[in-house]
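Human: I wish I could look at a protein chain and see how it folds. This is the protein in question:
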Amino acid sequence: MNNKVMIGMSGGVDSSVAAAVLKKEGYDVIGVTLKIWSDEMCGTQPERGCCSLSTVEDARRVAFKLGIPYYVLNFQDIFKENVVDYFANQYIKGRTPNPCIACNRFVKFGSMLEKAVSMGIDRIATGHYAIIEKDPVSGRYLLKKSVTDKKDQTYALYNMTQYQLERTLMPIGRYDKETVREMARDMGFHVAEKPDSQEICFIPDNNYGAFLQSIAKRAVKPGKFVDTKGNVLGEHKGIIYYTVGQRKGLGKSFGKPMYVVRIDAERNVVVLGEAGEEYSIGLIASDLNWIAFEKPDKPITAKAKVRYLAKEAEATISPLEDGKVCVYFEKPQRAITPGQSVVFYDGDVVLGGGIIEEQINRS
């Protein structure tokens, strides 16, 4: 491989420091910002959001300070098709997708890598908190947790292929956030104190419902709240406004805490349960990607994580004939949500992961 590396620069402190580390290590670094938003959408975002008007200017200033080339690449169509449209379609089906996982899969480590290779650049890099290593025994590339659990981002990276891992650098995976900020201060980067973006970048004001209603291809209709026995409890305003595990914002008082247990898009029904009923013992997952090995041909035990902020839990993962897996947990897990991802770990190594299709509940 050649010494060239294209780094995605978001205008934040992580990717800025990652670019600096790569240059210090002797790489021929080319900085790029992926334009994934329309100018109209960009103007609706908060200044610290990754779609804000200041993003390109912040990244450009860092690139200038480092003395590296910098470009803005138009990925709007790719992002809309693979992230925005996917997000909306899944919500309309009563599922709760993770748009960051879709973006990493199709945009950053898919299309950006393809673009880099087409330009004669053999590697890409990002400011993710994760570590990529080659296993000397198996010869496979491994995705491993960063040195700090607080910022570890491997949950959103489980779709990476061996080809992508071989050609990707993540220079800050062995640093914690405060060290990265200190490095930025030492280098005089104006983004050293820039706060992390917490919002989904394409949703103005973080208002999911309004955004989904505005782009829905069919009308969002009210329906019924029912309990787990099928009794009607009231009316909901449309399934796009709810997600499994939700307690607040149901728009109705039930005299006791009630949680969204399931969403039945076919019947336009939101199933509510009392405290404890939002827990499930297992799940079925599809669209699997395995990193540490080829797909398993027999049950394995590992730790599994059912959402980004969830804790890992002991589980048994059993392959099914249709390419899916059945996952049973030692202890019931809260709010297992169709559309979210389940990611499997062995210590700090990511084994793989997939999309949650359905919950498994005790009969």
